[in-house]
Amino acid sequence: MTDTSQHSFESIIEELAGSGNSRTWSILVTIFGDLAQKTGDEISGPLLSSLTQRIGIKPQAMRVALHRLRRDGWIATEKVGRTSKHRLTEYGLSQSLIASPRIYAATINPPEAWHVLLANPDTQIDEKNLVIRGYRRVLPNVHVGAGHAPQGVGDFLVVEGTLSTIPEWLQALIADAATVEEYIRLEQNLDVVAGALDNGYSPTISETAVIRALIVHDWRRIVLRQPNLSLELVPGSPSAQCRANVWKLLARLERPTLEALEVATT
Amino acid sequence: MTDTSQHSFESIIEELAGSGNSRTWSILVTIFGDLAQKTGDEISGPLLSSLTQRIGIKPQAMRVALHRLRRDGWIATEKVGRTSKHRLTEYGLSQSLIASPRIYAATINPPEAWHVLLANPDTQIDEKNLVIRGYRRVLPNVHVGAGHAPQGVGDFLVVEGTLSTIPEWLQALIADAATVEEYIRLEQNLDVVAGALDNGYSPTISETAVIRALIVHDWRRIVLRQPNLSLELVPGSPSAQCRANVWKLLARLERPTLEALEVATT
Question: Nearest-CA distance from A231 to chain B in Å?
Fold first, then answer.
């Protein structure tokens, strides 16, 4: 490893890991999601330690996070001799698969069906629950969600079908300052990595795995928090561009195989 | 004409004509719509005078109303010798045909398509215009209309498709006191007419034409003012029952032909 590439990797990590205040367990989920999303995929204890240490995660923090992920049913750990083998559980795999299209798709196609929930103005609705399920509040008592309306929505009047183009007032509502800011910061991070690669930095496969994980993690934090009716559906928004740039960069950082990573760690 | 039937007709007219404060021109539109809705149909001056006088409309009021309807393009008048012949214009016929299904249908089938207009909360919308076009305001900045969304609705977010069952809070909003009151009053009027017929009252064809016109007029005033998303779509509402009763009563009062009415007048 040359001094220059060491410098490149460190500044990339500083940029990518420094920008978020992510929980360790959340980063672990991203690592498993990026590297070990097939049934049977396993990551050894030493490999996981090696990857997380490169990000700056302390061994104790990783142990705590792994404990939590096992407790919540995301990850299973098996001891083989003196070595631990970690893998996503059935549940972890299914959750990971649900999120994957939104994270890894090169472009987002708007859903064919939408529905709007119109709530009784005289009762309190569980707005938080709707937002968690991907609904966008467009007006007081009015939430728009993707796909068909779920059964048994109770007290709502529901209109289900197609959505018109998004008028400017709603575009402005969707492109709120905090969301736009997040996209801009991610773009800056992507630029740092792309710039290093342009300048001849050639990461090792372990570095590649770590850089990929951090990019995916940053991106995932943004897109999975976005409602169905998101900035990506607004023409010319920073979001669609950001997705294209994430995709372009991940293509330059080819996903290493677990086998190669295990070999590189030992 | 027996004393009893004279009495029946007078009390019916008192009930039906007394309950509304309708403009004469509006009653004339109903008469033409009920009796002369085919191209070529004409009502002579003497017949029109005879019918309106039976309702209690003064000759001078009828002349003013006819003048207004000609000016607004609803009615055309031709002099044949000393007799005037009145008919709906092309425009009048088309307007009458648009309204007919909503007035005369035995039952109302909900439209297959609906659409909801979601308005920019920061701008003033022309709510009056939407209401005239049959939209129902269900929430602030939210209007529901029947059928497909019109082109070029501008600043609205539009969701177009199917409508869920109407939740109770919206049923209550739709069944506002004033509307329910109108239906109840009309039911009472229908009862008076049905009661007289049950008691053996057999109206002349001129009386039939007048009673029909007044029933249709009362009913028309209510239903045409109702938004697309109306009380008729609320299960068990007074409105669907009222429509059935109007229809039953009109079936008992067979529409006279213009020829027979002209003969009866001369």
Answer: 15
CATH code for the part of the protein at A3-106+175-265: 1.10.10.10
Q: So what's the pLDDT on residue A133?
A: 87
Confidence of residue B157 (pLDDT cuts 50, 70, 90): very high
The confidence band for B133, taking pLDDT boundaries of 50, 70 and 90, is confident
Nearest by CB to residue A118, choosing from B113, B120, B139, is B139
Name the residue ranges covered by the structural domains of chain B: 3-107+177-265, 114-162
* CATH entry, B3-107+177-265, from 3.40.50.280, 3.40.190.10, 1.10.10.10, 2.60.120.1060: 1.10.10.10
- Pick from A120, A143, A147, A152: which is nearest to B164 by CA? A152
Report CA dihedral (B143, B149, B151, B154) to the nearest 10 degrees.
Answer: 30
Tell me the per-residue pLDDT of B59-106, one tens digit each, with 9 for 90 and over. 999 999 999 999 999 999 999 899 999 999 999 999 999 889 889 888
Beta-bridged to residue A118, according to DSSP, are A142, A157
* Rounded-to-integer distance, Cα A28 and Cα A41, Å: 14
Do the Cβ atoms of A10 and A16 come closer than 8 Å?
no
Closest chain A residue by Cα to residue B116: A159
Is B116 near chain A, with CB under 8 Å?
Answer: yes
Judge: B118–A140 Cβ closer than 8 Å, yes or no. Answer: no
Q: pTM here?
A: 0.81
Q: What's the gap in Å between the CA of B162 and the closest CA on chain A? A: 5
Q: Can you read off the two tokens belonging to residue A239?
A: 């979001």
Q: What is the mean pLDDT of residues B232-237?
A: 82
Between the alpha carbon of residue B52 and those of residues A7, A117, B92, B262, the distances in Å are 99, 50, 19, 14
Of A113, A139, A166, the CB nearest to B142: A139
User: In which element (H, E) is residue A216 found?
Assistant: helix A205-223
Within chain B, residue ranges assigned H as helices are 3-19, 24-35, 45-55, 59-71, 90-104, 127-132, 168-174, 177-198, 205-223, 238-252, 258-265
Residue A147 is predicted with a pLDDT of 93
| CB-CB contact of A125 with A141 (8 Å) | yes
Residues in CB range of A136: below 8 A, 6 or more apart: A143, A144, A145, A174, A227, A228, A229, A230
Please identify every stretch of chain A with a pLDDT value under 70, giving residue numbers as ranges. Answer: 1-4, 19-21
Task: Count how many residues are written for chain A.
Answer: 266
CA B31 to chain centre: 10
Which structure tokens are listed for B96? 């009458």
- Residue pair A23/A221 in contact (Cβ under 8 Å)? The answer is no
Q: What is the mean pLDDT of residues B123-151?
A: 91
Q: Would an 8 Å CB–CB cutoff place B160 in contact with chain A?
A: yes
Q: How far is CA B17 from CA A107, B20, B23, B56, B58, in A?
A: 66, 6, 11, 8, 13
Check pLDDT > 80 for residue B22.
no
